[in-house]
Amino acid sequence: MVDSQKQLTVAIAWCLAWGDRREPQLSQDLLQQFREAIDTDREPPEPLNPYFERAKSLQSLTAEFPKSLQNLSPELVHLWQQKTKIGLVYGGATKIKQYVFEEAKLQDIRGASALLDRINLYDIPEFFGSSEGTRSARQWLENNDSTLAKALIPELLIYYKGGSFLAFCPAALIDSLADAIEKRYTQETLTANSCVVGDVFHPLEIYLGLLQNPIEKTLWLDSLQSHLTNPAVQAYFGIQANDPPDKIEAAFKSRKNFNELVAKLANQFNQRRSGCDRPSLEQNNTPDQKTRPSRRYPPMFETHPYLVRDAGDRRSSVATVTDFPEPIQFSETLARKRWVGQITKQESAEERTWFRKAGLDWDAGEVESWVNKFEQYLRDENLVQKYDSDLNLFDENQKIRDIHKREARSLREIAAADKNGFIAYIYADGNNMGQYIRDHIATPAQYEQFSNDIFHATEKSVYYAIAHHLKPYHYTPDSCSNRTNKDKVWIHPFEIVTIGGDDVLLIVPANKALNIAKTIGDRFEEILIETGRYAIEPSQKPTPHSEIHRYNPQEAPESKCCLSISSSVLITADNTPIYYADKLVSQLLKSAKKKAKDLKEKGYHGGTVDFLTLKAVTMISSNINAFRDQGLTVKLPERQQELKLYAAPYTLHELGGLLETAKAVKKSGFPQSQLYQIRSLLERGKRTAILNYRYFKVRLAADKQHFLDNDFEKAWCGAKTNNGNLAPWIQAIQKDGKTTYETLWRELVELLPFVDDPANDAPNDNDPDDSKRSDKQTTAPSSQEANQ
Predict the structure, then answer these.
(1) CATH superfamily of 369-625
(2) pLDDT of residue 1
(3) Mind listing the UniProt keywords for this protein, alphabetically (predicted)?
(4) Is residue 467 within 8 Å of residue 386, measured between CB atoms?
(5) Domain ranges of the chain
(6) Pairwise CA distance, residues 608 & 85, whole Å
(7) Distance from C-alpha of 759 to C-alpha of 163, rounded to nearest angstrom
(8) How many CB atoms lie within 10 A of CB 20?
(9) Confidence (pLDDT) at 7
């Protein structure tokens, strides 16, 4: 935090030294000396000392929060009397899924995501002179607005790795910076939406929140008592008139800080994203520039009905490319996505020549692949040999061979790594983030630290999960492959679509999806705990585990981290339309997050997972909640009972138990026909299902029944009032005089084909012939077959 505090001091001093005009109030020589002093960690020149002293005087507010504005130190009073303010700019890309998933091909989705990642993670830092970006972005800014380029230094950037950014800026240039970043998004992507807003604040407001002018008019802690009956005050601070003084003071402090400034910008962001205009803050505008350019009319490329459209049937085609197995019509937007997608997948320069042949001269800049980052993670963590453990790594001289692994180019290549030929979409998002920011983030330094911690934990947890559950796959391209070279190739059997802040979307083989989702959730919390900043306070520890976990609650680990990740997993065939899969996996994520929110009221802070096995695209015609409510819920009003033929979502502990139960069912040798017959009898009632389950169970070999006894009946189905069990039902839920019974049998049966055989637990069969499978048949029958 020391470095972050120094960065904040430099940022404030720089904005004060620049002044309140577009052109700096200091000479170019002094500005150059300022930057050199920062870069070399030397004392600033003598004329700049007053600005640093004003910035340092603000640090006293971090040690002691003033209970009255009348008690401010003379230095702070003098600072308040200064006219120079500081700009704060916030924004990023909007409607991201609309841009990324508007095309049906994985290559185009990959390119769209990579292009947005390049702007977020490289171009924006380079605007501020960071070495992480590309010189092309900085050069572009200098060509468009040289004054703005001179005004931006790396210390001004607070965070940028979460899909949005927040930065300081000299007050007179905030509109220029906001317009430049919006223009960069549009110029590079052509059609992606972005929104950036900014406002000016007094330096004192960085630590004390929004203040009135004159400052005496600000409602402060010493005068708050007389306004506690005001509903607006109660809603704003989250307090009640009869709350004790210490609670009121804590609520006031958590509101009156830097977070209040960010909240104001977030409101302006939502207004501008909705098309509202606001006055420009530039002082040198002409009469026709009183407002910023409107976002009311986003970029569009209309096409005449008689013109040729691109392959996505959205925009006018600009070129017909014959370099692919089949000729493709490209608009420039689609061409950029496909080209960037090829670059990220490290396709050869020869395979990418079509872009220049089409007459397009756009430069993709520096685009880095997630797989490259993953391979670097393996080297940094010494996990290369573990990840490559199934490969024959040694040559005839017993020296390790350098086996070059390629990236998967299609969903078919990822599906080939699963024995059934299915893939899974994993969509993960963080829990409790907003509340944590409101309660614990009060300064720009804390914002920066929090952003870096979350991005690091998310990215590393994904890499860790992939490294421990997937192996390189030996793939032989078939006639449907878009690879020009049909020789066997080792590939990474996964696709990371995006990792942004606490947001993750990846595609993996179906047989490893739930393991990966669980490991991501577990590892995310472990990484945050290792920082020492996110442990649960003792008073927040959960209630008895029996009220939270349905699987062996006595064995459930204690929640340690106040932040977590919820995930959704959709198992489906590789030919399922991606836009449809994205829609379903997003619904599953909402269900998982709702489960996490409900359990948080009981003291559980961990992650949750919801999943669905989609055997056919027509399986769900509306949405998942309606499908479960209408198709998987049996209501028995005469008995005041409700039977839920599903148990999802699951906590991470329960998900681990579900995977163990699936392995136990396989070990028991339960005949498939009987598994599906029990599933079809669930909707006939609780007693019928119990009777048939017990009948089929006793017909198993005597030495196999204990697998079900230990890992299913005792683990999940114990009765509340005696030592028996309700298998295949989970113990009843009593609410509003109605009894609800859940069962995981249906999900268990659908999951079995995607659980590796315990007797032969090999994650991949590296026989090249297996990569030629084109059928999507599994050992499990479809829903219609099972019901028959």
Answers:
(1) Reverse transcriptase/Diguanylate cyclase domain (3.30.70.270)
(2) 38
(3) Antiviral defense, Nucleotide-binding
(4) yes
(5) 2-214+259-289, 221-255, 301-367, 369-625, 632-756
(6) 45
(7) 44
(8) 18
(9) 86
